[in-house]
Amino acid sequence: ATYHRCLKQLDHWGYIKYLPSHNPYKGSKIKLLKFETSSEQEQGQAVGQALVPYIKHDKQIKTVINIKKEEVINFFKNEFKKHLPEKQLQTEAEKFYNHNKATGWIISGNKPIKDWQAAAQNWMQKALEIKAKKEKKTETKLNHLKTNRNKNYDTPL
């Protein structure tokens, strides 16, 4: 697909002459054009205005760099203390801080993080979902037959 598209573009631009074969057993034909340089100087003025691409790069990505690790840890401890033990909260806070510090406090698409508290809440929401999935997996592994553990062998089948 890319090969044929490139050949069609080269034909359209006048670099080659592409004659596609619609028969799968017969190959397509490509004619190369001769490009020669002449020693004569061409007279006259060029028609049209030269096009120069205009790309303005004036947007600077401003990142939030002044966030301290202790501030993030305290936010996690205050905001999510009812969901996880303090030690796990500190671990999650450090993971969040280290990840965002490594990426320069930029989210996908090179957009700076505007509200790091909202990003932290999303982080914890995802962490709690992952924890719930892990707990559910271990629960189903332990009781995969879905039988009653308290059995009464005195009653007949």
General description of the model:
It is elongated and about 105 Å long. It is 43% helix and 8% strand. Among the domains are: 2-32, no CATH class; 69-142, no CATH class. The model has no long low-confidence stretch (mean pLDDT 80). With 157 residues, the chain is mostly helical. It has four helices and four strands, in the order αββααββα. It has helices at 2-13, 69-79, 86-102, 116-142; strands spanning 16-19, 29-32, 106-107, 111-112.
The H-and-E topology, N to C, reads as HEEHHEEH
- Count the strands? 4
Share of residues in strands: 5-15%
Poorly predicted parts: none
Distance between the termini: 68 Å
In round numbers, the mean pLDDT is 80
The helix tally amounts to 4
Give the C-alpha Rg: 33 Å
Largest sheet: 2 strands, antiparallel
Sheet with most strands: strand arrangement: 1-2
Rough outline:
elongated
Oligomeric composition of the shown chains: single chain
The percent of residues in helical segments reads: 40-55%
Question: Class by helix and strand content?
Answer: mainly alpha
What layout of secondary structure does this protein have?
Layout: H1 2-13, E1 16-19, E2 29-32, H2 69-79, H3 86-102, E3 106-107, E4 111-112, H4 116-142
Antiparallel strand pairs: 1-2, 3-4
Helix pairs in contact: 2-3
